[in-house]
Design brief:
245 residues; mainly alpha; 68% helix; 0% strand; transmembrane helix; DUF4328 domain-containing protein; transmembrane; DUF4328; membrane
Length: 245
């Protein structure tokens, strides 16, 4: 016998949602542990710090050689030091780029997971859609403020119930990240345009500042990642049965 509905029989329709129950604006959300990703992100940020320290050494080596040239010192010894400084500078650049790219990938996966988890805690407390947790970092101009807004929404949804909401850690991290971004772009442009020993000396000094600012931003980012990961993990463990991570 055919399973097709009998002729003239009414087709089934989905049952309506009970009256008074709001529909989550961003769709269904589910809890997934952020702990492994959070630790991996923190470790990679530590690698960023290590490569920045290496870059500072390269910056100072370049600065010392440029200073010697500005003072009028020449000779085979200075040429060898200049070649060594160039090699260090290039190696530091490759190391920083590799560490940064790896960190970006893992950070974005962690950030998106934290965003979805936050919807489980508070489906209606998010002013931006999930896509902005990733896309917001790549849209010019908007990337200066939108990822912070997403982070604050996640943070507010993840704090322990009854705790006071404070954004100091996130705000300081964001300010340092913007400062390091500006410093890096200025130092990169200055190094690219440097032609004389004095200009190279100034560019190396700017690069030292940019790398130091990046270290500060990365250290604060580690604190933000670990704190938010811990809050989400602990909040899930205290949640209703069946939602623990």
């Amino acid at each position: 016998m055919s399973d097709a509905p009998m002729s003239g029989a009414p087709m089934p329709v989905p049952a309506p949602l009970p009256a008074g129950i709001p529909v989550p604006p961003h769709g269904p959300a589910w809890l997934r542990s952020p702990v492994g990703l959070g630790r991996a992100t923190a470790a990679l940020l530590g690698l960023v710090v290590a490569t920045d320290l290496f870059a500072i050494w390269a910056d100072r080596t370049m600065y010392d050689v440029a200073s010697a040239l500005v003072d009028g010192r020449t000779g085979e010894g200075i040429r060898r030091k200049a070649d060594h400084a160039d090699s260090l500078y290039s190696a530091a650049g490759y190391a920083q780029t590799g560490a940064l790219l790896a960190t970006i990938v893992v950070f974005l996966v962690w950030f998106h997971r934290a965003r979805v988890n936050a919807e489980v805690f508070d489906p209606f407390g998010h002013s931006q859609s999930r896509g902005w947790a990733v896309g917001g970092w790549f849209v010019p101009i908007l990337n200066l403020w939108r990822p912070r807004r997403v982070m604050l929404d996640i943070w507010d949804a993840s704090i322990p119930q009854g705790s006071r909401t404070t954004h100091g850690l996130v705000n300081v991290w964001w300010a340092l990240w913007l400062a390091s971004l500006v410093a890096y772009r200025v130092s990169t442009a200055e190094h690219r345009d440097a032609r004389t020993a004095l200009e190279i000396q100034h560019a190396a000094g700017r690069a030292t500042f940019a790398d130091a600012a990046d270290i500060a931003a990365a250290l604060l980012a580690i604190l933000v990642v670990l704190r938010l990961t811990r809050m989400q993990h602990e909040k899930a463990l205290r949640g209703p049965a069946g939602t623990a991570l």
